[in-house]
Design brief:
Elements: E1 7-8, E2 11-12, H1 23-35, E3 44-48, E4 52-55, H2 60-69, E5 73-81, H3 84-92, H4 99-102, H5 119-130, H6 133-139, E6 147-149, E7 158-162, H7 166-180, H8 185-197, E8 200-211, H9 221-235, H10 237-240, H11 249-259
Parallel strand pairs: 5-8
Antiparallel strand pairs: 1-2, 3-7, 4-8, 5-7, 6-8
Helix pairs in contact: 1-7, 5-9, 7-8
Length: 260
């Protein structure tokens, strides 16, 4: 629980929209670690955005174990479907993203590339990913490096961090606030940590997760979510049963606007 925030069933409750660039979450773990270090110094925290719409759950444990066994890595990202840097590796290493459909995807020099702002490509990659098991299998990248380091800002939609590092993260956050007068968690966790502290960060290719859309892709958010609802009804009725029958994007949007 973050001091100053109410309790709800033992979980922290945060304001929406976040006023400090999501850093309240990290402040929570940083403060808890400082005040109660016993037994927590080896904790691994998985940060997953609420618009992660698919993941291959069998790779969660290997992902965490890889991070545990490589203490030199400060932040480890999953291989995120619809992320500009990751799609480059998924195409070049695994052949998962067909050039005949998406063109040649060069290594983006800023970690995101033009993909980050392209709603059309976002919808297309999700549709292709869900089109068949054969298509999805290629994204798992069974051949080639399991780890790709990066040296710039990337989207941190699904990442592993060590609890003992949260106080240092908060220190970086304060430095950015002073220098740039803004809270920016992705830049702090990636670019600043790499450039200012020489941290090692990278992508674990075998844990594949799908991230819905980024802000500039919002025009296709409803269409993307509906693709995953259709997939769940079609191929995972054993898990969802009739739960997805009540899905309504308009109701979701109304609730979101009310929170804002």
């Amino acid at each position: 629980r973050v001091p100053g925030y109410p309790k709800e069933e033992g979980r922290a409750v945060f304001r929406w929209p976040p006023v400090r660039g999501y850093t309240e979450y990290f402040q929570y773990y940083a403060k808890e670690y400082v005040h109660d270090r016993k037994g927590t110094e080896h904790d691994i925290i998985l940060k997953a955005d609420d618009d992660i719409v698919w993941l291959n759950a069998t790779e969660i444990r290997p992902f965490a174990e890889y991070f545990w066994n490589h203490p030199e890595i400060w932040l480890l990202s999953a291989a995120v479907v619809n992320q500009g840097l990751v799609v480059h590796y998924q195409q070049q290493q695994c052949g998962a993203v067909p050039k005949e459909l998406f063109g040649e995807l060069p290594l983006p020099d800023n970690g995101m590339g033009t993909w980050h702002d392209n709603a059309t490509q976002a919808l297309q990659i999700h549709q292709y990913f869900l089109s068949s098991q054969e298509a999805r299998d290629k994204f798992y990248c069974q051949e080639g490096p399991v780890f790709h380091p990066f040296s710039f800002t990337i989207n941190v939609n699904f990442v592993a961090l060590r609890r003992k590092d949260f106080p240092e993260y908060m220190q970086l956050t304060q430095e950015k606030l002073i220098a740039e007068k803004r809270y920016y968690d992705e830049g702090t966790m990636t670019w600043d940590a790499i450039k200012k502290r020489s941290k090692v960060e990278g992508i674990y290719m075998k844990l594949v997760v799908s991230h819905g859309t980024f802000g500039a892709q919002d025009a296709v958010t409803q269409a993307v979510l509906e693709e995953y609802v259709k997939y769940g009804k079609r191929e995972r009725s054993d898990l969802y049963g009739t739960l997805l029958d009540d899905y309504n994007y308009s109701a979701f949007e109304r609730k979101k606007r009310k929170l804002e």
